[in-house]
Design brief:
By secondary structure, the chain is mostly beta strands. It starts with a strand and ends with a strand. Helix content is 0%, strand content 48%. The model has no long low-confidence stretch (mean pLDDT 96). It is globular, with a radius of gyration of 13 Å. A hairpin with a 4-residue loop joins strand 7 and strand 8. Strands 2, 4, 5, 6, 9, 10 and 11 form a seven-stranded mixed beta sheet that branches.
Length: 123
């Protein structure tokens, strides 16, 4: 059974940092493209960052230079280090897995999804 379990969300002040984690099971983690997506109230879900099997990363322009995606294949864990957070980063954050090496921005191409972890940036 495939599972993606996110953690690490919470309330943080503007300018602060958080690290999200996603523990995966039930599929060959190291061969998949792994992505972080987010969805703010009233908005569509959007890809934040992706990392493929070779460790090549891609970021949305809105987070480039502030967020870092990484993974630990030995522990089947995906991370998202977020810094310089702003209220605009407030959203539910999801990890997702795609069976393929191309980390598409298309939500429809991802095979598995976690339940999400809430990130709220507010003073």
């Amino acid at each position: 059974q495939v599972q993606l379990v996110e953690s690490g969300g919470g309330l943080v002040q503007p300018g602060g940092s958080l690290r999200l984690s996603c523990v995966a099971s039930g599929f060959t983690f190291g061969t998949y493209c792994m992505g972080w997506f987010r969805q703010a109230p009233g908005k569509e879900r959007e890809r934040v960052a992706g990392i493929n099997s070779e460790g090549t990363t891609v970021y949305d322009a809105s987070v480039k230079g502030r967020f870092t995606i990484s993974k630990d294949n030995d522990n089947n864990t995906l991370y998202l280090q977020m810094s310089s957070l702003s209220p605009e980063d407030t959203a539910m954050y999801y990890c997702a897995a795609r069976d393929g090496d191309y980390c598409s921005i298309s939500i429809a191409l991802y095979n598995y999804w976690g339940q999400g972890t809430q990130v709220t940036v507010s003073s």
